[in-house]
Design goal:
alpha+beta, Jelly Rolls, seven-stranded antiparallel sheet, 13 strands, globular, binds 2-oxoglutaric acid
Length: 255
């Protein structure tokens, strides 16, 4: 079992577990995510979103795939991730949503936000970032700030942290690589920059809630699909809609 710094998580709002996924499992996950990426263009399962970069349209995100891949389901629903979460929640965790952000070369970053603003049905979640490529400042790693214990910070009408509140936070980068896991609270402020390298910066984000609060995953995706159908694929024609909040800075395809 991985050594878990519960006190560190409680005081910071995040926990970096370095080098805890073994090489063979990582290789299997990488192959499964490559297949998921192909499904986006050949009519396979999953919910997929694209963005415009200076080099053309590229895949930005895949979601809702846990039931379509044995390798990914095993990793997401058992083993090190759910073991650590059971300790952080103080009880078993249940999956709320799962996604891969591909952040291809030139792929957009995310404005400062707290995930709680976009996560419905339960007030509290914890996510696990699973890097599949090196996430560096240049490739668009996460930046996080303390303060999750204060709950929801003031937000603007896009669901982002209001600019003056974001400017007052003590931001720090979290460079990570394949094999590492970064757990963070749904109230942990975070943002990321554009990928300025010539390699993708793929990362899974697996989000859970305490099992005693119920299983809301199917309702979350039904709700999100209905909202996207109604609202269209972009915000003001300027930013592609991949989240419920308007925090993704990538451009709509064709823009
Ligand atoms: O993948 C990233 O760079 C940031 C992801 C993020 O903040 C999100 O998906 O809400």
């Amino acid at each position: 079992m991985v050594e878990i710094d519960v006190e560190g998580f409680r005081s910071n709002g995040w926990l970096l577990a370095a080098n805890v996924v073994d090489g063979q499992q990582l290789a299997d996950i990488d192959a499964a995510v490559t297949q998921l990426e192909h499904w986006a263009t050949d009519g396979g399962p999953g919910l997929h979103h694209f963005e415009q970069t200076d080099d053309g349209a590229v895949i930005a995100r895949s979601e809702d795939f846990v039931n379509d891949s044995d390798v990914l389901r095993t990793f997401i629903c058992s083993g090190v991730v759910t073991d650590v979460l059971a300790v952080l929640f103080g009880e078993p965790a249940v999956l709320f949503k799962e996604k891969i952000n591909y952040k291809q070369p030139g792929g957009g970053g995310f404005a400062p936000h707290q995930d709680a603003a976009a996560y419905r049905f339960v007030d509290h979640h914890i996510s696990c970032m699973v890097p599949l490529d090196p996430a560096t400042e240049a490739s668009g790693c996460l930046w996080v700030a303390p303060g999750y214990e204060h709950g929801q910070l003031p937000t603007d009408d896009r669901g982002r942290i209001e600019a003056s509140a974001a400017a007052a936070l003590d931001w720090r980068p979290v460079p990570v690589g394949p094999g590492d896991l970064l757990f963070f609270d749904s109230y942990t402020p975070h943002y990321s920059e554009t990928n300025t390298t010539n390699r993708p910066r793929r990362a899974g984000y697996l989000t859970y809630n305490a099992a005693s609060l119920g299983d809301h995953r199917e309702r979350y995706y039904a709700d999100k699909a209905a909202e996207f159908d109604q609202a269209g694929g972009d915000f003001d024609g300027e930013r592609v809609r991949i989240s419920i909040s308007d925090d993704f800075l990538g451009r709509p395809v064709g823009s």
